[in-house]
Description:
Chain A is α/β, with parallel strands linked by helices.
Amino acid sequence: MNVIEIADAADGRLADYLRLRDVNLRRSLEAEHGLFLAEGEKVVRRALHAGYRPRSLLLTERRRGVLPGIAADLPADLAAGPEAVPVYVVPESVAEGVVGFHLHRGVLGSFHRMPLPGLGTVLAGARTAVVLEDIVDHTNVGAIFRSAAGLGVDAVVLAPRCADPLYRRAVRVSMGAVFTLPYTRLTDWYGGLSELRERGFRLLALTPAPGSVLLPDALAGAAPDDRHALLLGTEGEGLSSRWLDQADVRVRIPMAERDVDSLNVTAAAAVACYELVRSH
Amino acid sequence: MNVIEIADAADGRLADYLRLRDVNLRRSLEAEHGLFLAEGEKVVRRALHAGYRPRSLLLTERRRGVLPGIAADLPADLAAGPEAVPVYVVPESVAEGVVGFHLHRGVLGSFHRMPLPGLGTVLAGARTAVVLEDIVDHTNVGAIFRSAAGLGVDAVVLAPRCADPLYRRAVRVSMGAVFTLPYTRLTDWYGGLSELRERGFRLLALTPAPGSVLLPDALAGAAPDDRHALLLGTEGEGLSSRWLDQADVRVRIPMAERDVDSLNVTAAAAVACYELVRSH
Lengths: 280, 280
């Protein structure tokens, strides 16, 4: 392993890890270099398992013990030799100086992004998909990926304005599900749903508004080979009227007659994914 | 309405609203005075609807317009006369000086707590209940209340160490479901579950560990009058071995064969509540 001790938070080799809570800086830095960060031993190893290639790793001295496990997950050319990935080991105070807070987990990886696959690739063989319109909160995106992957949904499709699943917080909340669940992003918000319909997907728009059908009823009698895409809208406003109009059917989760208007978007997504997979 | 303009953040009448992000201060202050805070017009009005009596309300000048709606929800003796509840109207800068951050929603209410009902009261007529062991995160507690109420679970029971549902963040995330869904707290962690069993509840321990039964299978053939309590454990460790041993059956949510160990606790709670209510 190419282990490098660094004692100075201003060392330029640590630039990938700078000020992790500065959202604007991170967005431009990560876009410019085509990188994303994974946090914690488990999530870093899941990124490696999924085939993402690291640019470097950062460990606090206390967490040196994770090295053998990570080394075992590295492809041979990155574990040793001229292309070996640099592993920066730093005191806790240096880590804190770089990232801007106490680095509790003590393990970070900076990874190269891969080009997003095309819609055809992501949906090949998929019978169930979740389509996120403008979910802007990274925690919600990560939580929905975790639920969709865990419950067995086959693919995720993002609208152009949906938050980035490879943003650090989304990655962490997803527990690495963003690495294993195939996803891509539509480039065309207005017309993009027609590409799903052309591929045989029936579009179910989840909305608590009146005039919708109970989700289990909408799925009753589905054949195993049917293709269903569940459309989920933003945290506050729900789906746009354009997407509601484009859907084949509006569906809702059966709710109690109480003074509660709706579930939050991650709870609704979990229940809907469960029902979707169950009916296939 | 007893509207009082205050221009000084140090005014003692605003003491209920002091430093909302100082968890230790809030815990002792709220326990000492038996109060809790509701945040935002909708949640404040839901607290009033549910019969909680306000100690005072705090509005920023910009949100003065909510007053008629709130006045309509106040009991007559609190809307006018010698017992009229004080409504403090303050500039935004004063609100920020008191609570410690920009008060985006601009509406706060300080309410008297009510004594928690006994277990018998909470469970009277209930066929489904959720029992939270040591969920320590207020966001998770609030989200579980919202899902349980929305999906139609009848009651919630808390272990002694579970986080407070009336803590500000739990209240907000629950969207006021903590006011409408009956709940109480066990005083005895070790033996408390036997009180549920004595009342005819079958105890289902939710756990991703091997050796559990699929939740839908565990509920198959349930009669409408059967009573089921779903036990949920902490975010990281899950249920204690004591509670696992006390349960009638260990259940799990059907999961895909992927590199995802489990759902997060709020997603798992939502799916499990959905399945629980559906089978009754």
